[in-house]
């Protein structure tokens, strides 16, 4: 939530910062702004709306500036407006701050500043408090003032700060929200995420919690909370700028849907050796460790939660260990039974989702071993986990998660199979069969993507709908949830997913003439049962889009439209079944004229409760 950028160097600060913000717009897009040090005074330009609106505002303005900060916002404190947009300044206007996160004690601090310094505030934001606080402590040494302000601030924040009187430095702090530093040839950078830096450098420092960074044109120095200098290895980003570009696709979401064969292949191949044994490079999880575990929780939010449901299926089916799955926002507050015999698996694309992170901390505090399944290297979840199982999806920019999800599914299968191999709870033949089915998925995904025009046609017929139901059985239940979430988040159609067997316990009351239902019947084992469910809703007049494996043609007798996925083992059909639903959601949203990559009210990483 919110993206921050900062630059100090020989280049044109305005251009570099605005281009960087464009790459972070997925993090929040209700307002944006920049603050530049222009010859010893700070110029701020900011407005409500997209970065394109900011660009219009500053179009033609020339700033002689080589140091500055920028922000793209997802509102928490105060509605999106020009005045609430970042950067924020102190009363004197000689300090400017951009902030991602939340200052929990900002009400208290506002009062303290009013009572003691007669401070007046322009905005309703918590961020303005940071600028004012640094302002009252500032007497010519920005580092000092930032350290003093931190002593009073509670909450989560990544901030970038500049001072009018010190044009040769920029200061940044990380506390529980992401911050990376880019090391360029002609200057240095701060950003909430790597894509903002890739135009200039692939060499970065991953900043840790409670670290303060002092940047000059030629130097970057990292300090801990005791103001001691700390060393850091340069992290070389493996992907380049092109990986974070649309590459000819209309939207990132469509590009990312098409990257799934590659992401799945990559995630598999990084974990399989030449004999198809699962390698846990960097993870030390032994048979003895597994024997100590008597409870597994998989905890996540949104799409990652839907992947966790498949994790439960895979671990229970292969490793025969009971698993509980929970949404992180609920898990945190339900006083779950956790001790040192608990394995806690956190699943997160961004690795920054606050609810997931807090659930992880809760589990860790009580002694659980933490394994995380994460896409973003070096993110908060990875730092706080004992072991990390990366999804190799590459950068996911669209707010609607697609390739992160399918690669999370692969990780879930691999974790289940690894535990099964340790426990010897499945036969070698069955293990080899599932691995071989997993290895066939990239090719089958390629084939499945060829049905995009057919799914586009279906979307064209249905995009004006007000509501849609998704039903399925077994692993198709989780896929129904995911298909429904994908549709509602980008097309704003009211969609609802339910286990098909549950329909007759209430929801079938809503079935009437022409009700649209997407019915998933991708598992041989449950195929007949699903055909009966389809028959039941058809009898009430529903219009059914069915999905089945290509050998299971009888669904054509029931459904109005049918989407086929390639034949595969029931166990792994999830990875294929979700793809047509992603494409359906994409085209429905496109026909409705929605802003697909940046749906309203959402942001890519949710770093607030
Ligand atoms: C996915 O399409 C959503 N935008 C959302 O549900 C997302 O999966 C959720 O916020 C969790 O994010 P994470 O994977 O980064 O933790």
What is the tally of helical segments? Answer: 19
> How far apart are the termini?
11 Å
Principal-axes shape call: globular
Q: Largest sheet, if any?
A: 8 strands, antiparallel
- The CATH topology label of the largest domain is Glutamine Phosphoribosylpyrophosphate, subunit 1, domain 1
The share of residues in helices is 25-40%
CATH top level of the largest domain? Alpha Beta
Strand order of the largest sheet: 3-2-4-1-10-9-11-15
Low-pLDDT residue spans: none
Structural class: alpha/beta
Question: Any idea what the radius of gyration is?
Answer: 25 Å
Count of discrete structural domains: 3
CATH homologous superfamily descriptor of the largest domain: Aminohydrolase, N-terminal nucleophile (Ntn) domain
Oligomer kind = single chain
The CATH architecture of the largest domain: 4-Layer Sandwich
The fraction of residues in strands falls at: 15-25%
Mean pLDDT: 94
Give a list of the ligands. 2-deoxy-2-amino glucitol-6-phosphate
How many extended strands?
25
Fold and architecture overview:
This protein is α/β, with parallel strands linked by helices. It folds into 3 domains: 3-241, 4-Layer Sandwich (Glutamine Phosphoribosylpyrophosphate, subunit 1, domain 1); 255-439, Glucose-6-phosphate isomerase like protein, domain 1 (Rossmann fold, 3-Layer(aba) Sandwich); 448-591, Glucose-6-phosphate isomerase like protein, domain 1 (Rossmann fold), CATH 3.40.50.10490. It contains 19 helices and 25 strands. An 8-stranded antiparallel sheet has the order 3-2-4-1-10-9-11-15, with helices on one face. Strand 9 (180-183) and strand 10 form a beta hairpin. Helix 4 packs across helix 5 and helix 15 packs parallel to helix 19. The longest helix is centred in the last third of the chain and has 21 residues, at 403-423. The radius of gyration is 25 Å and the shape is globular. The chain binds 2-deoxy-2-amino glucitol-6-phosphate. Residues 301-304, 348-350, 353, 356, 399-401, 489, 605-606 line the site of 2-deoxy-2-amino glucitol-6-phosphate.
